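Input/output pair, single chain:
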Amino acid sequence: MSENRDIAKQVVEAIGGKGNIASFAHCATRLRIMVHDQGLIDQDRVENIDKVKGAFLNSGQYQIIFGTGTVNRIYEEVERLGITGTTKEDVKSQSKKHGNPFQRAIRTFGDVFVPIIPVLVATGLFMGLRGLLTQPQILSLFGMTAADIPANFLLFTQVLTDTAFAFLPALVAWSAFRVFGGSPVLGIVLGLMLVNPALPNAYSVANGSAEALTMLGFIPVVGYQGSVLPAFFVGLLGAKFEKMLRKRVPEALDLILTPFITLLVMITLGLFVIGPIFHSFEEWVLHGTTFILGLPFGIAGLVIGFFNQIIVVTGVHHIFNFLEIQLLEQLGNNPFNAIVTSAMAAQGAACLAVGLKTKNVKLKALALPSSFSAFLGITEPAIFGVNLRYMKPFIMGLIGGAIGGFLASIFGLAATGMAVTVIPGTLLYLNSQLPLYILCNVIAMAVAFILTWLFGYKDKMTEELQAAPAASQGSASTQAGSTTSGAVTEAVTAEANKTSVDEAALSMQIPSPVAGKVLPLEEVPDPAFAQKHMGDGFAIEPTDGKVVAPFDGVVAHLMDKSKHAVILVHENGLQLLIHVGINTVSLKGAGFKTHVQTGDAVKAGQLLIEFDLDTIRDAGLTTITPVIVPADAEQVAEVVMNENRQPVTANKDAVMTVHFKTD
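Output:
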């Protein structure tokens, strides 16, 4: 107990003392802290505290990863120091207030656009596939020409590629109503009104084949096909207006009057005021972006490729979503994607160089999976976990990104979609551009890797970073053995330790507790799981909302309020964490139903938790469910993921094998 108290004191001191803590809470694996001044956080000191498996800033929160069970005890010790804890929702609310007004505005902008990006990604992939199938070289393999393609097939592909952008305002207005607390269905209807076929089509007006309507003799009115900002502000103002009405309209008339007045007022403002103003602003932004991208001699790629990941560090990169959508809608392609892809690939290569060069086991275990994450299009683990810590690798990555972006600009590369980059991004270049796309990324990676290997990193840098915090901590307590999740787990583990594992039980097959598609942990959109700070295992993209026990055992711990995570213990002492979704603790149990309690004995296949997939997705969260063996499991020698990424049935298909120590 005294050890955890010492750790709690070290944490508080390392993040700037009690006075720097605005609020703190915890979920199943980590402390989530809001601080007044991020500059007072001693990152190196935090990372060298016993039992800390990682720490990083995310969405204004400082998150310190301790692991299941341990985090509860550290949280309790922090409270005993006289610091009042808060709920996870309170911390989330404070994080929205964090940063300057511009950062908060961009974060909100991102909250609106992130949920609709998957649809736009799918549309981009459809465009890429259509481009591949209609290439003369591909058609010639089947003895065909462009004239031989059936008209109905082209019509079908047009449905796939055009629908999302044709009704884009409906998607944006729906998401804006959801984020700002209105009724999403009203947002959908308002967005559809903005593109009603009765209005002159925006594209037809732009090419001169149709004329805008003139209202009141001077207001031009057109449809807003492909527009983003008019729908965004209609959604923002509409949601707030609806909430204001609901407070004033009598309950007996609310069902009739509130939607009627909201739709009437907002579509009037949308067509006659908001639409014309922000559509003009969109045109200016688009022209400015295309001007920069059109600069000669690869200047655009050089500048964007260098600064892109710096902007990612500031957290305001969500503004690029708007730019890319506009480019796709107006130009039919996305030259921005290839440039930023080179920047991301370069940061991954710099991180890879650190991982391969270092002899520090902990850093190697962090850097290698982080680099792989970057090659899949998620650079935050590589940037915050490795490159920025030593700074030089980050700079070498910027240089590599600038050179790759320069080449992408020179070659005139343009994607058919958005939001997927690096390796997955190849699907957006399934045409004659693919070899050049690969070349740009390979060169960006090579430059960043070589520069980092030669000039960007030495193990002496790690030793210097660790020396200062170690000296200030003095003779800190050494790390204890395996930590368990409460008295139930301790009892089960103690009983299991009485009996050694026999030869027949040196390994154990673990089936999936959830039906769905198997994913490696590296693809989980959360650095704590993706970098395996919590332990090794796999993830499931669920196809239904049920969690069942994958083996006979005991419920060691169930998150009784949020209901989103459960820890099971097998009779041999093996612990298994099942964590439904990412950041689903913020739902505070909404959409979840539990069928067991902490301490219950369970049988394989027994229903543990039910969860509503739509509730999670509507909150803008992912349903991807990590299933992990905690990193501090002393009896485990190795966790091996089976070669199976096909859809699996709960409690039927073995997904991973756990090998136990024989000592």
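The two ends are 28 Å apart (CA to CA). Residues 87-92, 468-505 have pLDDT under 50 and may be disordered.
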